[in-house]
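User:
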Amino acid sequence: MLKKLRDWIKHPHGPTLVVFYVFTAGCIAGAILFTIIGQDTSYGFVAYIFYALAAVTLGYTVYSLVVSVPAAKRKITEKLKANKLTANVLGSYDFKTTALAFLSFVATVAFAAVNLAGAIRYRLIWYGAVAAYYFVLIVLRGGILAAYKKCAEKYADRAEEYEKSKWRIYLAGGAFLIVLELAMSAAVTQMTLSERPAQSGEIMAIATAAYTFYKTITAVYNLIKAHKFSNPVTQSLRNLNFAAACMSVVSLTVLMISTFDSASSEAMQYLKSAVGFVACAAIIAMAAFMIIRAKKKLKSFNGECENER
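Assistant: Predicted structure:
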C-alpha cells in the first residue's frame, strides 16, 4: 500500500489526480472564505490552516503538471502532426515563441488591470506601482512583437539584412530591460517601504502565488531552451518573460509577508529588501549581457561586409 502511494506521488495519474485537483480548489476556496468571515472572529485561525494546505497542494499541483504534461503533450503532438498545417506550426519553435508571447501579452494586460483595480479599490500606491511596472512590460513586449513582424515583411527577400534586423531588436530588447528595471526599482522601493494593510491582500494571495509558480517555472525553462536556438528575437521575448517572473517573485514575497507577518518585523523588512535587490540585479545583468552580445554580433556583420568589399 505504501509502495503504491509512493509510486503515485512520484508519478501522479488517473482519476485520483482529478480528485486531488478538486481538493486543491477546495483549499483555495476555504482560505478565501475564512479570510472573509474570519475577520474579527474566533474563526480567523482557520484561514491560516487553509492557506498552509493551499500552499502545499498548489506546490504539488505544479509538480504533477510538470510530470504529467509532457506525456499528454506527446499524445496531442502525435495527433497534431498528422495534419500538415499544424505539423508546420509545431515544427517552428520561433513561431511557438511568438504565439506564446502574444498569449503572455494578454495575460500581462489582465494582471496589470487587476493590480490597477486594486490600487483604485484600496487606494494603495503599492498596487499602482505594480500595475505601472506591468504596463511598461506590455509596451516593451508589444514593441518587440511589432518590430519583429515589420522586419519579417521588410526583409523577406534579404536574409542577411533580416538577420541583422533581428540582432538590432535583440539590442533594443537589452535597452528595454534597463527601462523595465527602472520601473521595477520604483515598484520594489514602494513595496518595500510602504506599510501595506494585510486585509487588502489576503484574498489575492493565492491567485498571486499560483501565477508566480507558473510564471517562474515556465520562464526559467524557456530561458534555458531559447538559448539552444539561433533566433535572437526569441531569446529577447524569453528574457522579458524572465524579467516578469522576477517581478512576480518580489510581489509574492512582499504580499505574503504583509499578509502573514502582522508585526512587520525588522527581519521581514530585510528579506523584502534582499529579494528586491537580487531581482533588480538579475535584470541589470541580463540587460548588460544582451547589449554586449548584440553589439559584438552586429560588429561582426559589419566586419564581414568590409571584408567582402
